[in-house]
């Protein structure tokens, strides 16, 4: 099949904002521990911007760690849902390619499941601009852990039906001379959830928000396959979290 363009997929989330906020998974606590350890700075009282914040899943976790956090979100529907879920947290409209933030104003800049929607040639210099010296840029993604057999089998079915690019998560960041050097970390975690919740989560991925009936047909077939394999009606979703951290060196 011909997949929708990345631009179309990037704009697709707002129409499923409530579903996204309900069914997408959070991030494991050790991710934030690692961020603090690598950066040498606690999140408590830190100035943080969470870019591509969506409905505020990671933003809420940063707030709960004591950060003074603001969300940056380009999508109107997602920003509305963010405000509904996190009424006490500010959110501004914008994206990583042109951050509506002051030079040197942040201790942390985070991208949870969103950096791949930016143009790194623009978003990396923007990150360097808004971070103070010693501030940290953190890029992270929950990804299906294909070392788990049933997840690998599902991923194979998705790839066979929709192609290799069904799950967009490009971790590439260009080499720069902007004082940013990345370290890479991998964490795993899992959650046990009903099959229906797993499929609802899958339906919030940009591919399923843009392919129409073909996506609905796939999810219906997947429901039957999983119900036969897991008679308890639940699955153990396991995630491999890719975490990239760069600390801005002094000028």
From TrEMBL:
Organism field: Streptomyces venezuelae
Residues in Methyltransferase type domain copies: 50-138
Entry-linked CDD domains: AdoMet_MTases
GO biological process, any: methylation
Protein name: SAM-dependent methyltransferase
Sorted UniProt keywords: Methyltransferase, Transferase
One Pfam family from the record: Methyltransf_11
Family of the protein in this entry: Belongs to the methyltransferase superfamily.
GO molecular function: S-adenosylmethionine-dependent methyltransferase activity
UniProt cross-references to InterPro entries, sorted A to Z: Diverse_substrate_MTase, Methyltransf_11, SAM-dependent_MTases_sf
């Amino acid at each position: 099949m011909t997949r929708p363009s990345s631009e179309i997929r990037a704009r697709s989330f707002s129409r499923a904002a409530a579903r996204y906020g309900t069914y997408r998974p959070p991030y494991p606590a050790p991710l934030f521990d690692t961020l603090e350890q690598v950066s040498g700075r606690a999140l408590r009282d830190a100035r943080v911007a969470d870019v591509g914040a969506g409905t505020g899943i990671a933003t809420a976790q940063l707030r709960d760690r004591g950060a003074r956090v603001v969300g940056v979100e380009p999508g109107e529907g997602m920003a509305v849902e963010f405000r509904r879920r996190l009424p006490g947290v500010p959110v501004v409209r914008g994206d990583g390619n042109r951050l509506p933030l002051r030079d040197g104003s942040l201790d942390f800049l985070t991208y949870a499941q969103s950096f791949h929607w930016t143009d790194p040639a623009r978003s990396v210099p923007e990150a360097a601009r808004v971070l103070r010296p010693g501030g940290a840029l953190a890029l992270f993604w929950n990804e299906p852990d294909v070392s788990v057999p049933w997840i690998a089998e599902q991923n194979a079915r998705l790839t066979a039906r929709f192609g290799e690019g069904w799950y967009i998560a490009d971790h590439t960041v260009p080499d720069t001379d902007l004082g940013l050097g990345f370290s890479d970390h991998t964490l795993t975690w899992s959650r046990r959830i009903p099959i229906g919740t797993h499929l609802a989560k899958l339906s919030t991925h940009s591919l399923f928000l843009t392919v129409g009936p073909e996506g609905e047909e796939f999810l219906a077939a997947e429901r039957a396959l999983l119900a036969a394999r897991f008679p308890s009606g639940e699955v153990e979703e396991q995630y491999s979290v890719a975490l990239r951290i760069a600390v801005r060196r002094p000028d």
